[in-house]
Structure formats: C-alpha cells, structure tokens
Specification:
Blueprint (H helix, E strand, L loop, with lengths): L2 H16 L3 H8 L3 E10 L5 E12 L5 E8 L4 H17 L5 E8 L7 H15 L8 E5 L5 H15 L19 H19 L8 E5 L3 H12 L3 E7 L2 E4 L6 H9 L12 E3 L1 H5 L5 E4 L18 E3 L8 H9 L3 E3 L1 H4 L2 H15 L5 H26 L3 H20 L3
Parallel strand pairs: 3-4, 3-5, 6-7, 6-10, 10-11, 11-12
Antiparallel strand pairs: 1-2, 2-4, 7-8, 8-9
Helix pairs in contact: 1-3, 1-14, 3-14, 4-5, 6-7, 6-12, 6-13, 12-13, 13-14
The protein binds nicotinamide-adenine-dinucleotide (NAD).
Amino acid sequence: MKAHEAAQLYFNRAADLMDLSDNMRRLLSIPKREVQVQIPVELDNGEIATFVGYRVQHDDARGPMKGGLRYHPAVDLDEIRALASLMTWKTAVVNIPYGGAKGGIAIDPRKHSVREMELITRKFVDQIHDLIGPDTDIPAPDMGTGAQEMAWFLNQYEKYHGYSPACVTGKPVELHGAEGREEATGRGVGILAFKLMSRLGRKPANTRVALQGFGNVGSYCAAFLAEADFKIVALSDLSGAYFRPDGIDVSAALRHARHNRGSLEGFSGTEKLTNAELLELDVELLIPAALGGVITAENAPRIKAPIIIEAANAPTTPDADALLHDRGAVILPDILANAGGVTVSYFEWAQNRQHYNWGLSRVRQELDKALSDGFERVWDMSNQRKVSLRTAAYFIGIGRVGRATVLGGIR
Ligand code: NAD
C-alpha cells in the first residue's frame, strides 16, 4: 500500500466515526498545493546530475504550514503528500498554531560530498523560496537533514528575502536556532513513554525496550529512556541491529556512533541481529524511529511487544494497526508520539519573531507541558469514545482543523 493511501485510511477510519460529511472530507484531504521541481547540479567530478524535489502544502486553516524536509532515495510525491497531511493533524493534536506541509528530495545524502549537498539544498531553495516563508510555510529537519542543511536553507532564502530567521526551524544554535530543538523529538518520545507507562501501570525498570533507528530521533530517545531507567535491550540503524538481553550501555553506543560518522557499525558487546528481527523481539516496548511502513500485516502476527510508540512517521500500515489493536496492543500514534519536534520548532519560530532567547530550561518546560496536555486529551478521548489512541488523536486533530475551516469561512 502506498503511503498516501495508508494516511487516507487512517483519516477515513476516524472520519467515519465522526460522521464527517463527504464535502468536508474532500476539503480536508486534497492538499492546498503540491510542487515538484527540477534540481540540476554540477557534481564534484564535473558531471551534471538532476534531482527531483517536492513541497506539499496540505492545510493552513490553523496557521502557517509547517513540516520537515526529507533527503532519502525513496522520497516521492506520494510519500511527501502523506507526510504533509500527518503534519496537519499533528500540529492540531498538540494545539500549536500551524497547518501541515512536507518536503523532500529523492537523494541518498551519504553518496554525496558536503559541497554537493550544499549546492543541492541551495538550488532547491532557489526553486521554492517564493512559496514558503515565516508566515506561509516553514520547513525543518527530517530524515537525512539536520541543522547544517537548515543553515544553508536560511542563508539562501535570505539572499532573496533579507533577514528572516523564522523562515526555517531546526537551525544551528549559533544561527538563530533554539536550544533544545535538536533533542526535542527524541526527548518528546521519552516524555510520552513515561506518561504512557505510568497510565498502563508499568515501571520503567521493568520495561525492556527495542528501538529501531539511531539518528536524531532514536539517539536522543535512547539517551532519555536510559536516564529514566528504562532497559534498552536493542538498538539499530542502517548497519543492522544490536541486541543485549541484560541491557545496552546507551552512553557507550552514543560515544561509538559519535566517533563513527553516526553509525553503530562495529558496536561491540552485543549480538548482531537484522532490523526485521529487532521488531519481533520479546520486549515490553517497541519504538520504531527510522522509516515508515516497517510494521506490516506480514510481520504484525510475530510482533510480541504489547506497547508500540511510533517515533517514526507512519511506521505501522493500517492493516497491521488493525491486527495489533484486535490483539490488545497499545499504539501511541506518530501524530502525537513524535510531535515534540514540531512543538520546539514552534518555540524556535516564536523566539525568532520575538528576537528573544528563552533558554533551554524554559524550552524543556514548555515542551513537557504541550506534550502532557496533548497526551491527556488523547488518553481521555480514547477512554470516553472507546477507540484506539490513534483514532482518538485523529478525532482531536480533524475536529480542530475542521472547526477552524468552518469558522474562517470558505467563500
Ligand atoms: P535521521 O536521518 O537522523 O536518522 C535515521 C536513522 O534511521 C539512522 O540511524 C539510519 O541509519 C536509520 N535507518 C535508515 N534506514 C533504515 C532502515 N532501512 N532500517 C533501519 N534503520 C534505518 O532521521 P530522524 O530525523 O531521526 O528521523 C527518523 C524518523 O523520525 C523519520 O520517520 C522522521 O520522519 C521522524 N521524525 C523526525 C523528526 C525530527 O525532528 N528529526 C520529527 C518528527 C518525526
């Protein structure tokens, strides 16, 4: 199943239970704007290479559109369209004044030099700078991008529009970035894991965790959970999975990755597994924090974890979601679980517009509050309406966006 079809299925499942009219469904489903651009560059070896970039702006009823920029070979319009719609529901679930968007370039950044990646990023900005901006659509990091790409993005955007630090978030702290943004998504997953476990009556020390993905989200999440006394038994990245039933020394894994260009390759003292095997480990908590579509109807019957927290976007296909739900598994959905990133992006944007630095402790405090409020609302809705946490989150997201759309008027 393609990514957008899966996203629509989740939307429609909730819309059916909300008795949402066909007209409103159509309005909330069709993106406001979709752009595909050509990015030709001269590579270091003198050859010309042409890449394809996308920006999908899904909905702006609640404010400027917001969403990450993904650099990955599997990026296509369908995937970006799906991720843009998730951003609309996500910003609404945590009640920050944004709509949803997403962008990306179909490219494997590991195969290109720093100079080539800078050139590609700048050329992409050349193509889309008129369509984005601090009051319109604000990009941020996602898979394959980080603070450096955001710095290039800002610099190129400012060549056209002058000083505009709020045109992109996830920037380096030295260049109008917010303290606490880099850690925010992983930390947010950790905060929510803590809340969910306490609602389910489980203690961190008795919770074995398998975590897929050790990039921005996975590494900060692992650090937070280890600090909070969870027992991380498996970690993974593109190089494979690393398993130790007695618990992995997360600080050692972080050190190893730091000295190894971010990779866990060669991390010792653990049993090597595949990423597919990691998903099926006998653990209490499974956290996919890498790609989408990794939990499917094929492997769902073998997944033993009773609790899944979706740190990645769209890691569970709708048929797998139904199978796991019927079996009693609890899934904290992506549109709440990884909302810490966009929440602190909002704080960064707010600080840029105030020309005032909040400092790390205020950022962390406000993140905790925003996620706690979002969690409590979703939890209560799920209990009141007797639906999954995912459907409850969609009820809240669709409800808020729908009301804003109607109140604003469509004439
Ligand atoms: P990243 O590029 O920093 O890290 C990705 C990690 O996944 C790396 O460890 C990589 O080795 C691993 N990986 C890639 N392909 C894999 C595969 N086939 N099997 C196993 N591991 C694989 O990306 P990130 O920013 O950490 O994003 C991870 C997920 O979290 C994505 O789904 C992204 O959309 C989502 N997300 C990120 C943010 C953010 O602020 N960065 C916010 C919300 C959601």
